[in-house]
Amino acid sequence: MSKAVATRHIAVDLGASSGRVALGTLEGGRLHVEILHRFPNGGVPVRGQLYWNVLGLWREVLHGLKLAAQHGEIQSIGVNSWAVDYGLLDAQGDLLGAVHHYRSPRLDGVMQRVRAKLTDEAIYNATGIQFLPFNTLYQLAAEPSERLARADKLLMIPDLLHFWLCGVAVTERTNASSTQFFNPQTGKWATELLDALNIPTEFLPAIAQSGTTLGLLTPEVERETGLKGVQVILPATHDTASAVAAVPAEGRDWAYVSSGTWSLVGIETPQPIITPRSLAENLTNEAGVGGTNRLLKNVMGLWIIQQCNEVWKLDYADLYEQAAAVASCSTIDPDDARFLPPGADMAARVQAYCSETNQSVPQTPAEITRCVLDSLAHKTAQILKALEDVSGQAIRVVHVVGGGSQIALLNQLIANACGKWVIAGPVEATLMGNLLVQALGQTDLPTLRQVVRASTALQTFSPNPQP
């Protein structure tokens, strides 16, 4: 690889609160990432419901591609995003209405109704997926039957953008595996679950592996952006799968925390683990790059602090520094349902939880932030213990990647709570995983991770019983 000519690739990373278009240059076994365009994202409230502005995202992506066209020859482009949300297309390929947000109130009570009709065992044995109220299965169960009857294609968010980029409609495997109607053991849609709920299955597209080349940009996109001869190549379109592909790990005795708005805590396994114990722990099996399985659990992450800071308007670096200076006083369950919806009262919800559980009530932004970070660390430790018990794999080191890996206090708290070494970085794991899967295709993961290690400065935190 060190003698290869430099190649350039574009990664589009769409997160729940922001998006980026980045240029990756792979040369001499190292990857250089340059973010060309950043733009905000978030839910749009309309008549009591919450939607995504996907057309606005598309406009921003096109702008980012115009900037990329100024950097010379580009080999490929790939899009990743959050999971579970989708667009419905009619037979002409046009959107059937707005794209719902996974935090929309339309989903209130839907998971409970579905689980009352289908047993937990039937759903979990077919999918191996954690029960979360916003999974795509429940979103489809909430759809009006008339809208589903008109749909010709269901495309997850990155698959929708790939369709707009090159005209090919498929679902990439890692994102398919998040829906709770994908069978990780057969690699096919678990259509029996949808049949039991009277949900059509004809609109489900073919499932494709990450690294698959879909084709060239359409002439329309070429004219709009100035890019020529660029292939659309599927990365791991689920952002967590891209991030895990870029975990700079060696050996097998490691776990990861993809730390951001959500905190994804997991390990990599050769095969799905679908057992009564994994069901009891509500662990999820999602597809990874190179045919791997990601056994993990979703935890509410920095979302709680982000919502609080929408009101506080404080500099995050200062906030975390102040939180490090206050003593631990109380903890919350970050997955309590009260913390899922957005709102300016998030800090009050944290205080109410502490009061209801007879703990000291944090008052200042620093105290509330420390409470949340302590809680995330303790939750991470609980999940890692469950992962070891369920899988039989010992965990020696925990890799923290993503935006949260920049928070030294959180990294140290995780090391303390788990009693394990924590290695922080890369911050841009999702972008790096996306770019490298494009560049390397189905090359073995160790090769990909060698590139990450060669391209990233990492920081290590040793466990210390004193916070």
Topology:
Blueprint: E1 7-14, E2 18-27, E3 30-40, E4 43-46, E5 49-52, H1 54-68, E6 76-81, E7 86-89, E8 99-100, H2 110-117, H3 120-127, H4 136-141, H5 145-150, E9 153-156, H6 157-166, E10 171-172, H7 173-176, E11 182-183, E12 188-189, H8 191-196, E13 207-208, E14 213-216, H9 219-225, E15 231-233, H10 239-245, E16 254-259, E17 262-269, H11 276-280, E18 284-287, E19 293-300, H12 303-312, H13 316-324, H14 346-356, H15 365-391, E20 397-401, H16 408-418, E21 421-424, H17 429-440, H18 445-455, E22 459-461
Parallel strand pairs: 1-6, 6-15, 10-13, 16-20, 20-21
Antiparallel strand pairs: 1-2, 2-3, 4-5, 5-8, 7-9, 11-12, 14-15, 16-17, 17-19, 18-19, 21-22
Helix pairs in contact: 10-17, 12-15, 13-15, 15-16
Give structural notes.
The chain is of the alpha+beta class and 467 residues long. It folds into 2 domains: 7-233, ATPase, nucleotide binding domain (Nucleotidyltransferase, domain 5), CATH 3.30.420.40; 239-467, Nucleotidyltransferase, domain 5, CATH 3.30.420.40. Helices cover 37% and strands 23% of the residues. It has 18 helices and 22 strands. A 7-stranded mixed β-sheet has the order 18-19-17-16-20-21-22, sandwiched between helices. A hairpin with a 2-residue loop joins strand 4 (43-46) and strand 5. Helix 12 runs antiparallel to helix 15 (365-391) and helix 13 crosses helix 15. The protein is globular, with a radius of gyration of 21 Å.
